[in-house]
Amino acid sequence: xxxxxxxxxxxxxxxxxxxxxxxxxxxxxxxxxxxxxxxxxxxxxxxxxxxxxxxxxxxxxxxxxxxxxxxxxxxxxxxxxxxxxxxxxxxxxxxxxxxxxxxxxxxxxxxxxxxxxxxxxxxxxxxxxxxxxxxxxxxxxxxxxxxxxxxxxxxxxxxxxxxxxxxxxxxxxxxxxxxxxxxxxxxxxxxxxxxxxxxxxxxxxxxxxxxxxxxxxxxxxxxxxxxxxxxxxxxxxxxxxxxxxxxxxxxxxxxxxxxxxxxxxxxxxxxxxxxxxxxxxxxxxxxxxxxxxxxxxxxxxxxxxxxxxxxxxxxxxxxxxxxxxxxxxxxxxxxxxxxxxxxxxxxxxxxxxxxxxxxxxxxxxxxxxxxxxxxxxxxxxxxxxxxxxxxxxxxxxxxxxxxxxxxxxxxxxxxxxxxxxxxxxxxxxxxxxxxxxxxxxxxxxxxxxxxxxxxxxxxxxxxxxxxxxxxxxxxxxxxxxxxxxxxxxxxxxxxxxxxxxxxxxxxxxxxxxxxxxxxxxxxxxxxxxxxxxxxxxxxxxxxxxxxxxxxxxxxxxxxxxxxxxxxxxxxxxxxxxxxxxxxxxxxxxxxxxxxxxxxxxxxxxxxxxxxxxxxxxxxxxxxxxxxxxxxxxxxxxxxxxxxxxxxxxxxxxxxxxxxxxxxxxxxxxxxxxxxxxxxxxxxxxxxxxxxxxxxxxxxxxxxxxxxxxxxxxxxxxxxxxxxxxxxxxxxxxxxxxxxxxxxxxxxxxxxxxxxxxxxxxxxxxxxxxxxxxxxxxxxxxxxxxxxxxxxxxxxxxxxxxxxxxxxxxxxxxxxxxxxxxxxxxxxxxxxxxxxxxxxxxxxxxxxxxxxxxxxxxxxxxxxxxxxxxxxxxxxxxxxxxxxxxxxxxxxxxxxxxxxxxxxxxxxxxxxxxxxxxxxxxxxxxxxxxxxxxxxxxxxxxxxxxxxxxxxxxxxxxxxxxxx
Length: 963
What we know:
38 helices; 41% helix
């Protein structure tokens, strides 16, 4: 169990395991290294087991990485840690509810129950459609709230509000609000009054009017207020007045909100009931019911308590997650690890004050929870602080730049107090510091970025650290381009594609704005009503000019083959089958097509939407730019394009921070929601419906406009985003802007040069995919393989055959092989899942006979990952098992093959061996067997798996086993 030696601060964290701790862990300070060592120290004690320690993370991948690292530094193996509580808050809340939470809803007065089959909705698109469905029924059942419906801009605002309230621990009961929830909705006048007074103070020793009075000089402009609103002069005071009257604070804060609270309450509690009756819970509701259960059920709380609780990325916790962590702590062994400077997820309800005000909140939250019962059984005063100061990622120059970034104004009128309290100064451990920090600008910023990248690649002036610790010239894969928003990255990729530039996007993509989604939408419109909007897209795709399209639409003389395809689609009953046929027609395969198909089928299956409503669902996805994560390989040496949010936790030798333009970073904000919650003013409404005038009208709320001026937009999180971007860099940072650089670039110590871009076309043979996102492997992580990368591909080239033959292999040995194999696999998956699909050839008919003959439970397309040690280095082999068949006493792993011969069977043995060893560990009490099902003749060949040592030998043969 050798490895790096901890520094003094890391050693303190690893060895001091008793008591309460707040750990300030800045970027690159070895946080994960220290946390996993600490966990190993705790569980290796004779009186402690993994079940006694909760390690809360914020992503499943982080939890997996934690387990893999813990194995290296403890007596436990991956198999023993498989069920250990090293997981996300959502996953752990799910575990609590499965074990203890059947009756949790009753604590809110709800009669419904949480069952063992309750599903968890993780897809925002699906939950959005379910909420839309719910709200349609709610409006019919609650006409008393009609005035609020008329004022709303979009139903999704209410779902966002519910999720925000849930993150704050504000829950409804059937007859009111849980615990002190209503007081939060009312707000706190004293706290607001302090904000009001601060904004209302005259400036320049009383000679200049207050900022609040100045901001209200536009009061009423382009607004329609109700008759009870004061005039601008009455509100601001007469000429020469420097501040608003003190009583204005009370006038705007205290408004009648009983109807608003009743509306939000009814929507909230009825949506909880709707979800329970539909047998699903969202992530927010998992936490809600787990919190209520732990508060109200002492036996469940005692059963769920841990001797040790550690929370990673504490800056990303919400208020309810902080309180959940306290409720799960059976002792004072509570450790929070994070960095306030990297808190960038407020849109996911992260509350940076959890870490900035840790000591105060720890004491206050514990006191609140213990108000009527002893729920937090330890003293919360004086937690120990540990500061990790040694940075193992970046040069001293990068660290200095990042500390300037966290204090740089985001707008021309903003002032930032410096030095900022709570900034822990970091020291570098870089082998050398040749850092280049520079800025470029040109009106054609996309080409300027590409031109700069070409200048950097192979240039010793931008040398990066090689594996031997010595400087080497940079490659494309050493460079990442960060953006504040996705649209810039998409546009940059379009320009890169024109030059066949090696560049790929990593992260969330706007699924419904992709070509596969646009064509699917077009065909759905055609099927629904032969809509011209659909035909225009389809005809343009096949090469018709605009005037030709107009003629076809006017005469309805559609191309014969296209019309026949439409007619064949109309015979299909399943939306999934339609989508699959459309994607197949245009050759769309891979991750984007798979995710699109899954999204469409999931929405159709989990709601009662009609085909027309499904069309509107996709249209809404186009309008809102709804995103999903898609991972795909983009080539071995390509520039990565990411948003800053996606880049969090990653590192690159060279970072290009692009789109440093006014109005883009920080982005200009749009209008706020009609109904919103905000500390310290509580629940507020921006628009009000009224029939007081000659005509019914939706009016602006003048009180909201004044309150908004007292709570101006804060740019702290935008600064933290800039800090995160800079601290991803190991060696060099380049800032790029267009014609109007932002305040950040003006305020940073960076020389900005106007350049003339010159992009040379890149000839790289097969260019990297400039459309699909791809996953960046975290540094120091395990080497990744697939079973295919361990196989001898030359066997498939023998006799000129492809890996899997087509349906007419005797006459066309090289025709449609891989494509046909994929179609058969897709059919097999769909049939095993119960989709309404019909076999179209003998291969698929044999699959039907085989699947129909299975007596147990089939699981399809199961992802499997085998971690193994090869020469002291961790390697993972990941793949997808076509079919896992479970019976009471055995597990059968089956892979479909359309090969016409058995020539490649020895290589398939490698593939199935990986699956065997994973399933053998998953199902320790059952016999596991592996076999190939050949669809050419319906025979099944049993395969004897290779040993782990034989697999290690294959890994070594690839040259990736251990450097």
